[in-house]
Specification:
Helix content is 46%, strand content 16%. β6, α5 and β7 form a beta-alpha-beta unit. α5 packs across α11. The strands form two sheets. It has a six-stranded mixed sheet. Strands 2-1-3-10-4 form a five-stranded mixed sheet. The chain folds into two domains: 162 residues, 3-Layer(aba) Sandwich (D-Maltodextrin-Binding Protein, domain 2); 141 residues, 3-Layer(aba) Sandwich (D-Maltodextrin-Binding Protein, domain 2), CATH 3.40.190. The protein is an alpha/beta fold and 341 residues long. Keywords: Signal.
Length: 341
């Protein structure tokens, strides 16, 4: 009888251990961009796979087939625990993330890895102190590639921009359009085709990737390219703080190796690749005009007040906006130099 009890106890213990070994934490991720978009297919999905890989399957990410809310609600969905992980654009909630302006400055870089990594480093040193992301675990703060002007009307030089109606999707981009003599037209990226095809807008502020993805190439036969981009867009990936805190220390340590700067670099790589593919798709269909040195001198003069104003906005969040901007440019130069080697 004792043998039977001992055997039964051993079997029960083995079953218990097996159950513990197979226990899995499933994190829900609310995604609002189409699954075919590079940001999902080549960034969010690989991130989910990496989380499962580094935790040896103990943590799995379930990317929901439909978003739990609009892009503007993404941050609060994570903060309030409606979803475990979300991503979005800071500018979709104007005034909430003042420090994001640092990553949206004009004339930064043509390399999304450089702007993203620099932005992350500045966030860690200066911007996190503003506590704008309290309630979540920040996994990545990054930017897309350089934003340029694409238009149905010719833009061979700076003077051709005047009076054109340009669709924008953010506060900084709105101010930039006004500063260069064009007329800003507000509208989400998903409405871009409609705005252009109906003549509500003559052109659009977009990175190369977005013109291609939203099938706008046949509507915009001209591109005016400015080194470093006329604008940028800041983005985030965040996890509910309580959910992060509930993960075992072993899993937190494992996931920490792939988020932050490593994840930000992957975002930059994704945007660089998508922009290159977008520009390639435009060959023979879009006429590219590069800003001349004279144009660049004018643009720097026109854009400096916007840069100064955005530095003041960042400072109003309780951090040193000027120091943050100086560091951003220094870090961009460092990463660009590394990429050139």
């Amino acid at each position: 009888m004792n043998v039977i009890y001992r055997l039964s106890g051993a079997i029960f213990g083995a079953m218990l251990c097996a159950g513990t070994a197979s226990a899995q934490t499933v994190l829900t991720l609310s995604s609002w961009v189409p699954a075919t978009h590079p940001q999902v297919a080549n960034f969010i999905v690989p991130m989910a796979k990496d989380i499962e890989r580094v935790t040896d399957g103990r943590v799995k990410v379930n990317i929901l087939p439909a978003p739990l809310g609009p892009p503007s609600a993404a941050f609060d969905l994570a903060k309030n625990g409606v979803a475990d992980i979300t991503y979005s654009v800071q500018g979709y909630t104007p005034g909430r993330f003042k420090t994001a302006a640092i990553g949206e400055m004009p004339l930064l870089s043509d390399n999304a890895i450089a702007t993203s990594v620099a932005f992350w480093r500045v966030y860690e040193k200066y911007l996190a102190a503003a506590h704008e992301y309290d309630g979540v675990k920040v996994m990545a703060i990054y930017t897309h590639g350089p934003g340029e002007i694409f238009s149905s009307k010719p833009i061979k030089a700076y003077g051709d921009i005047a009076g054109q109606k340009i669709r924008v999707g953010g506060v900084v981009a709105h101010d930039i359009v006004k500063s260069i003599g064009a007329v800003p037209v507000e509208g989400p990226s998903s409405k871009s085709y409609e705005l252009l095809s109906q003549g509500v807008a003559d052109g659009i502020f977009f990175p190369y990737e977005s013109v291609n993805f939203f099938k706008l190439i046949d509507l915009v036969g001209n591109s005016y390219t400015v080194p470093g981009g006329l604008y940028n867009t800041a983005m985030f990936v965040v996890m509910n703080q309580k959910k992060w805190d509930s993960l075992p220390a072993e899993d937190q340590a494992a996931i920490s190796t792939i988020i932050g700067e490593p994840l930000v670099r992957k975002a930059g790589e994704m945007w660089n690749k998508a922009d290159a593919e977008g520009r390639e798709a435009m060959k023979g269909k879009v006429t590219f005009h590069d800003a001349s040195e004279a144009d660049m001198a004018t643009l720097r003069e026109k854009l400096q007040p916007i840069i100064d104003n955005q530095i003041a906005v960042v400072s109003s969040a309780g951090v040193d906006g000027e120091a943050a901007y100086v560091m951003l440019k220094e870090e961009i130069a460092k990463v660009e130099a590394e990429s050139a080697q």
